[in-house]
Amino acid sequence: MQKPANAPRAPKGSFWTDPKARAWLFQIIAVVAVMALGWYLFQNTQHNLEQRGILSGFDFLQQSAGFGISQHLIDYNESHSYARVFVIGLLNTLLVSVIGIFFATILGFILGVARLSPNWLVRKLATVYIETFRNIPPLLQIFFWYFAVMLPMPGPRNSLAIGEHLFLNNRGLYMPAPVATDGFWAFVVSLLVVVAAIIAVARMAKAKREATGQRFPVLLASLALLVVIPGLVSLVFGAPFEWSMPVLQGFNFRGGWVVIPELIALTLALTVYTAAFIAENVRSGIQAVSHGQTEAARSLGLPVGKTLRLVIIPQALRVIIPPLTSQYLNLTKNSSLAAGIGYPDMVSLFAGTVLNQTGQAIEVIAITMSVYLAISISISLLMNWYNKRIALVER
């Protein structure tokens, strides 16, 4: 019905009765308040630093460090700069994080499956392990592996021999080390070619399986490529590296690689601790899969191993991956506890020694926090990408 021409108009709403206008106003006020608070804190910090004669900035990174580091994956001596110390601490943190994530994942999956085993003894042993190690603080476990296991080891002259060229003592694990030769880069290129070939084979096998239902032995083909191509390159260009063997000379070993006891203790503690949580994630993921899937696989005659590997685990991963990401992040952040036993990680080296020597607390802490934030975000992005790849796609 058309309104009369002389009908009164509805009164126009005021600013305070418009929800969108109020929302914009409050957001602008909040942003201004946060910026004002940040500016005040910045000015106050600058004033306090000037009063104490502390120069701000990152010029200190070019100064000579003047101290030694027990483990460094790149060349280092006392004349190198604090910037190089930062890189060494970052590499050491990444090293223990990657090793810990790798072994914790394997151990956690084994324990998670064992927790559901029909064998009573295996099931109870897995339960005792999980309930024990996940309820002990990680720092105490680090202390246990370091002070109760590694330090009581015999000295170099009485080392525990593991085979012919592995020696374990209170100074670490000594092992053969590869030394690059002229054929090294040709070998690296061959490995890159192998990786590309394996990816191509995997895609071809997937397309064939979807088209015909036939499975192609991707694993065997990948192993063959990994052996044949680098082997032929080594025959043509020569061996990619030679081995430097550890030899006892005087009171210590010379040559080879040494894995310091701090790294061994830290890796063991983080692996054992995180694996207990991963095992629970795996157990819950497997139990989230309908039991009808197992019955259907058995009705097709699939053995238990193939049922678990081809039917249950692929579906359980959609439940396991999100909490697994959190455990990877926790392991990476728990690696900062390495300062308790003197492992030269990011916190111990940069946020510890460098901060004490330079007094640049704000810059050092800001860099350290930014690095851990970047590592955590990178892990989250990688795991979220993988989670999307295995997620069910609705039609």
Automatic annotation (TrEMBL):
<feature type="transmembrane region" description="Helical">
    <location>
        <begin position="85"/>
        <end position="114"/>
    </location>
</feature>
<feature type="transmembrane region" description="Helical">
    <location>
        <begin position="21"/>
        <end position="42"/>
    </location>
</feature>
<keyword id="KW-0472">Membrane</keyword>
<dbReference type="InterPro" id="IPR000515">
    <property type="entry name" value="MetI-like"/>
</dbReference>
<protein>
    <submittedName>
        <fullName>General L-amino acid ABC transporter permease protein AapQ</fullName>
    </submittedName>
</protein>
<keyword id="KW-1133">Transmembrane helix</keyword>
<dbReference type="Pfam" id="PF00528">
    <property type="entry name" value="BPD_transp_1"/>
</dbReference>
<comment type="similarity">
    <text>Belongs to the binding-protein-dependent transport system permease family. HisMQ subfamily.</text>
</comment>
<dbReference type="GO" id="GO:0006865">
    <property type="term" value="P:amino acid transport"/>
</dbReference>
<dbReference type="InterPro" id="IPR010065">
    <property type="entry name" value="AA_ABC_transptr_permease_3TM"/>
</dbReference>
<feature type="transmembrane region" description="Helical">
    <location>
        <begin position="216"/>
        <end position="237"/>
    </location>
</feature>
<feature type="transmembrane region" description="Helical">
    <location>
        <begin position="184"/>
        <end position="204"/>
    </location>
</feature>
<feature type="transmembrane region" description="Helical">
    <location>
        <begin position="135"/>
        <end position="153"/>
    </location>
</feature>
<dbReference type="GO" id="GO:0022857">
    <property type="term" value="F:transmembrane transporter activity"/>
</dbReference>
<dbReference type="InterPro" id="IPR035906">
    <property type="entry name" value="MetI-like_sf"/>
</dbReference>
<dbReference type="GO" id="GO:0043190">
    <property type="term" value="C:ATP-binding cassette (ABC) transporter complex"/>
</dbReference>
<dbReference type="InterPro" id="IPR043429">
    <property type="entry name" value="ArtM/GltK/GlnP/TcyL/YhdX-like"/>
</dbReference>
<feature type="transmembrane region" description="Helical">
    <location>
        <begin position="337"/>
        <end position="355"/>
    </location>
</feature>
<feature type="transmembrane region" description="Helical">
    <location>
        <begin position="361"/>
        <end position="386"/>
    </location>
</feature>
<keyword id="KW-1003">Cell membrane</keyword>
<keyword id="KW-0812">Transmembrane</keyword>
<keyword id="KW-0813">Transport</keyword>
<keyword id="KW-0029">Amino-acid transport</keyword>
<feature type="transmembrane region" description="Helical">
    <location>
        <begin position="257"/>
        <end position="279"/>
    </location>
</feature>
<feature type="domain" description="ABC transmembrane type-1">
    <location>
        <begin position="90"/>
        <end position="383"/>
    </location>
</feature>
